[in-house]
Input
Amino acid sequence: MIKRVEINYRGIFQKTLAKRIGGDIVMIAARMGQVGFSNGRYSDAPERNGIPCKYFAFVSPDLSEEELEAECGAKLDIDEANISVVLDDTMVKGVEPWAWHGVRPINEKVVPYGYMLVVSRRRPEDLVRFMARKPYPYYLAILEGDASFAGLWVYRDDLTHERVLGALAALDPQLLSIEAVKGYLWDKTHEEHRVEAAQKAYESVRHNVHEVTPLQGIDWPYEIPKLPKWHEFSEGVVVKAVPREFHLGPKGQSRNQLFKRGTTKSQRPVVRFDLCTKCTLCWLECPDQCFDPTPDGYYDVDYEYCVGCGKCAEVCPVQECIVMVDELAFEDNRSPWEHWKRDPEGYIRWAEEKKGTHRVLPNVVTGTGQRVVEAEPVPVGGKPKPAARAGA
Amino acid sequence: MATADKVLVYDRIKGVKQIPLEEFYTSGHRTCQGCESATVMRQFIKAAGPRTVVAGSTGCMYVANTSYMTTPWIVPWMHTQLGAGGSSAVGMAAGLRALMRKNRIPQEKINVISFCGDLGGGDMGLSGISGALQTDYDLLIIMYDNESAANTDIQATGLTTWGAQTTFSPVGKVERIMHRRWKKNVAAMLAVGHPNCRYVATACATFPPLDFLNKVRKALSIGGPTFIHTYDPCPKGWDFHPRYSHELGELGVRSGLLPLYEIIDGEVVYTYDARKTAKGRIPVREYLTRQGRFAHLTEEDIAHIQRMVDQMWDEWEVPGVAPFRGTLKVSA
Amino acid sequence: MAVAQPVGVYEREDLLTGCQAVAEGIRLANVDVIAAYPIRPYTEVMDAISKIIADGKLVAEYIVADSEHSQFEIVKHAASVGARAFAGSSGTGWMYGFEALVVTATDRLPVLFLVGNRALDDPGAFGVEHNDALAIRDMGWLLCWVATAQEALEHVLLGYRIAEDKHVRMPMALAMDGAFLTHSQHIVRIPSQEAVNRFLPPFDLGERRLHPDNPVSIAPQVNEDWVMEIRRQNWEAARRARRVIATAYEEFNQVFGQRYRPPYYFEEFLTDDAEVVLIGMGTVAMPARTAVRRLREQGHRVGYVNLRWFRPFPTEELRESLRRFRAVGVIDRDFAHGAPDDGGVLLHEVRSCLYPVRERPAVVNFITGLGGRDVSIQDAIRMFEITQEAAREDRLDGFVTWVGVRE
Output
């Protein structure tokens, strides 16, 4: 028997975390007399920050290490997962790590009666409604918390690592028993709060496991392309360029149709067009060219291509004009400018509702936390005020 | 400063509203959130326009940008090797000129642009770029400098800022600073040694606004072999939140650590001179402390960097550009 | 070979070195871009080409590069915009540009390179050895050895014809022995431009050309989803090249008279009734053929096979040829230290080629002429004698002899 655990994470931000979880699953399973090994999906390297990536851990109670390696090693991705860990809940909208593969469902690999373990503060139904319908039942477990966020050089020691291990013990005690998890953490660190974090997560996740039936979820909207045979594409490593096409308005700029990047974002910019001074900066500074100039001089957003970096919100000189909002607050990628033109007041109400009452400003150095301030909403017809820059 | 009787005529973009709206490097590339090098790609080809052929050296802007069998490029683009930033441009320019001379393709101005990273251009490919700048072909080489081998997960290069943590210069129990090389002065080095090259510049993609776009326009219109060095804050390797890419570039320039200038026919023009702003140069601390890669620096380390920057602006023969000083007394 | 030539296809005769003959080929092929960098012994071709250009006999972009790497990258990128391009090198210079050589093949750009074979340093050595050119044997290159200056000139034209064929589009390495051929002067018949134009069509990279009117992206980064299919495509191109090579020689003969005989990939000398043969590449053919004549005068049934095309390797044709003999002596002007039986590179190719033959000849190997050491007629006779002995004695199969080394 083989237990396959995949850890879905956002490139760089949770790289160290995912690697540590994968490694510790192996170490703890070994204490329980099992064999295992852990690796990352090699094609994710070099990781780009934000892009969905995977780490794996494979454990078996009865196979030899060689057999386990033969079954699970030297493979770039797994065919099935007994447990699929998701370290950032915005990935439930799907993952597109590479060109040509389309947007893949986050639960693609989960087996019948297998587990999804998602780090989230949302209710299960608020996650399931973004996920693909599966032909069989499986379980969704929620580990309450925020996505851990760190940079390349500084590990964010926020106990997510210990809590995920405790949660895994709650889902599959044969894979990891909570005693083994705690024993391992204590021996390794001699820090009581780490053991406690695992224990608390173990207890809370046990009561936060929900069956997802074949009736729940959505029909997956993204087509998975089929790779051509060797004689079905041109020789000489030549690819046709993106066709040159431009007009003013939504999606007026031609874009790469086979790699859309949208699943990179955990936040998206919400634009108050009524406050916009048409300064061009959001459009000009966007590293992903996802702003479309409109005939009336505004800049629409193509959310299919937005990666959620937040640069537009930072360079926008007007307070409250562009605000980054959690990606799971949104159902679709429709043009916000069209929405606004169609129903100006309705759009602003909608936008303010999405923005909520507080503004989150990340500190400049990655993973050093953030400031949460109360919003100062500008009413319809209100005068644009200059924004305070958090960075410079 | 350029004098009135020596005016460079080029198709200047006078305001943000005049920036071409159309993209020739479009959405759908695999770069990091907040990638400033991607912004460099976008801006240079926006300034150059569609009658351009581009070669891209191995590096982030190759590997991250183009995932087979797709591309974000609308203009013709080709991969070239890490050290071939100069030679690829020469090859394309020579091929096009030969075909035009022999009337096999129509006579027209086709921009030839080649880009390379700091590792590819500033270290490995320096000889090839030097060779290219000795030719008489119309070509532009852009070295996008994110101060690391970013494509192999951030290793130190000859252009990494002194003291930075990289995967080749980690912080250890005994050694705090593993990267002890001072940033190589590539643009000025090339300008000094290549009289055939009439235009060399440094730039930051988005600060000051329009600056980089117009530098590309100037390079292409002055003709011959030209070179632009861009400073690109890298959220992944420098370890700052992607939201602040613009700010980091701006701070680097305003602190004087990343001097902005152009050298046109041997005349140096400062395109942003922090000394002449109301605040003057801001302390490098403001730039350094906003990056995780410098989190381990001590006060002494920061003071060392500040001293080096002060020296660059206060003591160099051509401040921020040419590090010569006429002060050494040689004993008999 | 006394074969009547069609009138007017050769316009004059001149005394040329192998390198100068190649330069004449470059002029006649109307090459567009040439990148030079000096290294002995191939350099002389660039000396000659630069003079041809300086004298106004060829319109081309001529660039003296800063290194072999740049030199090779320049012609690679010139080819990518649709220009016919030429470069070359020798020995460690060739190896310095190796990265560029690899990608020129995987980009499938049909540039022609001259390799003036030279020993690899250290110690620095100018003389011939084949290891430099052989280093690209697995990379997707066309690789061919010429033995005379006349062949060298003609294989520039054949090389472009084959490499640029739309079914092939692979780079072509034209190898010639350093010093013995690169620098040795012979009377060469120079074809007329009119005849060359009839044989060699202009270069057209078609839908792969890099130009604003044909926006393509060339060589985006691949992951494991694509590499194997791309390798498979290139394998197919190398297979198609075999057919195109034969066609090109036939077309060449039609224009220039019966210059080359089937199967073209190699040339047999007095093998019809031979019992044992030697096989080799390059100028070693001269002493070997002379030895054949002398030995035949004494009644020995020996012959010589001059292998011209190493890549693609003429597997079927060579197998059918060599299976007729009782023993084959393979001459390697290269080394492959630690290889099976400690034999040379060509040994393994020939032996592998013969493996499916049930009653196969004994195969022995000679490592000789390294670093430019001369291979004498006496050396060739000795090689024949050992091969004859192998034909009689099974125990000698696979035997490797160093010929010409001080022992």
